[in-house]
Amino acid sequence: MSETKSITMFIFALMLFIGTALVLPAQSLAAQEYVFTGQTMGTTYSIKMISAKPLSKSLWQEKINLRLKQVNARLSMYQKNSELSRFNAAPKDQAFKVSPDFYQVLEQCSKLHTQTGGAWDGTVKPLVDLWGFGTKGRRDTPPEAAEIKAALSRISFDKLKIGDHLLTKTMSGITLDLSSIAKGYGVDEIARLIREGGIENYLVEIGGELVGAGENKHRKAWIVGIANPEKGFLNSGLYKEIRLDNKAIATSGNYRNYFEKNGQIYSHIISPKTGYPVENAVISASVISDTCTWSDGLATALMVMDTQQAIALINRLENTECLIIRHDGKKKTALRSSGFKSYEIGF
Asked: Which pLDDT value is given to residue 40?
């Protein structure tokens, strides 16, 4: 081999080594955690992304805020010009064109209503408003029986016709309240936005509803908590820690939003069948499933349902588990679906 060729091959090999050396540290860089916080849907959000590649925090903050603003503009009851508010103001028999966001949520609403035997009903708004937990302002006394009966006459998800991105009321006075599912949908949409950005490890939380995927900065599965349901406490600690591995969890409870009159407590969880706040001893219901939209809506439905029927329903559903906490006298009792313990830390 000539000296010139030998030197050329040495230089080429050296260049390969240097190139490899330059690439390897980039591949082995420790993943960085990026945290984003803000306000949306009358509550707060917190988002964590784990990425070995540098991210533009300002760009991602802008993307997150824009998407949440879009979802809120579709589903908010409190924005007078939101798509939901405009539908609520629309007359009977008028076909209302809905956006893709609204339509996706409506499909889940229809499924929820059917699966829960009407325990979840998105047309419960007249009752929620009447009891002081909606858009009409708070109250500190229960409404009259005649008022409740009148509101009940305007509750029926079956009176909505859904098809081909059109929504139509078949009865006057029907209005939608999607607050029990909107936050979950917002969580799912931010998770989708993150995945489309090429990020596989993240935790998204809006108002306590969560989706976790991949691993945290310690290369472990995400660990989240179910709050200890105690009336009168904003922070009463954790009841249970949950491993959230490519799953969503949502919790509904009656221990924070309520009023009391003559020793009787009236919570914001209203039965669409009786017209009254539920009184079934259930104080908290948490649901784990593949999407936060589904978990969010189901958690509300489980608060309304008979406990044994609720557990039986979840056991029939694929990829869905629940934890229901009851207050039986002074004692808390936890009831689980068949596979819930597999997500609990310590089991």
From this structure: 97
Percent of the chain at pLDDT > 90 equals 84
Model pTM greater than 0.85? yes
Task: Band the pLDDT of 5: cuts 50, 70, 90.
Answer: very low
What's the sign of the alpha-carbon dihedral 228, 229, 230, 236?
Answer: positive
**pLDDT for the residue 102:** 98
